[in-house]
Design brief:
By secondary structure, the chain is of the alpha/beta class. It is about 40% helix and about 15% strand. The chain folds into 2 domains: about 5-80, Outer Surface Protein A, domain 3, CATH 3.90.930; about 125-375, 3-Layer(aba) Sandwich (Rossmann fold).
Length: about 375
Amino acid sequence: MRPKLKDFYRNHMQAADQVIRIQTDLVRLEIPDPNGIIYRFMNQLTGLYTIEELAELCNLTEEDVKRGVSMLHNHKLLESDATDTYGLTQRELQRYRNNFTFYSVHESMLENRYLFQERLKHSSVAILGLGGGGLLATWLAAMGVGKIVGVDHDRVELNNLNRQILFTEDDIGKHKTDVIRERLQAMNRDIDVQVVNRQIDSAHSVKDIIKDVDVVVCVIDTPPVQASRYVNSACIQYRKPVFHAGLRHGSGFMYRVVPFETGCTDCLCMQSIRRNSKVFDTIKSISNGELDSHLFLNPSFAPNVSLLTSVLASEIAKYITKYSPMFPLPYTKINLQDMRLTHEEISRIEDCPSCGRSRVIGAEPVPLDALVKLGTEKMTVK
């Protein structure tokens, strides 16, 4: 082992008033150093010296050096001395050079920057809905996700072009799936792009699509509420993590469901029904077939779609690569006026018909009216 302090942190390290300070967006660390010994030790962490050599150079015991290295490692201040590029080709090493620069601050002595890219390369993501989802697919293709499966059944329309920027006027009338596949493959020939031209109208209709992927993304807005419930049921059966996202007039939202770890979509619906009478009224009207279509007019605006899909892509990258923890709670709301992000818990409900004790494996979601009834009854939170 030849420990090396990351150049990024070496450039931000200051010693004054018998204290070493490293202050960046990622780390704010103050280390008391009354004798200057630690500062001299950290300056010797160049990757040239072993533990034994560092002890001799700095007049420290090997145990002292090991403790210092361990502390710096825990704060991710040391980079890996491994040179393994995990089978990445020379073309990939050049293509993702800026990715590696980004990862360099997140790597540790145990995981180098190339390992994160290798995890992306061997991952697969299914994106259900290629409107705003098409832009999300662009971010994933650019960062190097190895396999992207895009699902939609619509054709490109003129009114899509205010925010679905992969499409042009020449694409009007074409299937979105065909255009997305062509654009993504032109963008990155090294990845596998597959498309399915299908309407998601049941849990069964999505099972064959998601069963062999690592991550699922649901950005379908039709039929409202039910579409995400279909995807939720299928993902719970196959224990697939799924990210849901959408836009409202003044906010965007995204939430992740990790089956049997976080609350699921039906858990969220039941909690929302209890908290907000308007949600209750809306979902009840959907279940009774009394839906007012004006409640669900699409407010998607290009900058907001870009913002939401970028944040979502970042969270997916964190989930796949493990370079950094994801948001602390599964439900995230983005205020589109001041861009403030807030996070909320989605508690698991014991009586949830999809992930609770009474669930039926492989079943379609219960009817909405049954979910509304459950939501208005007393719920037991796990």
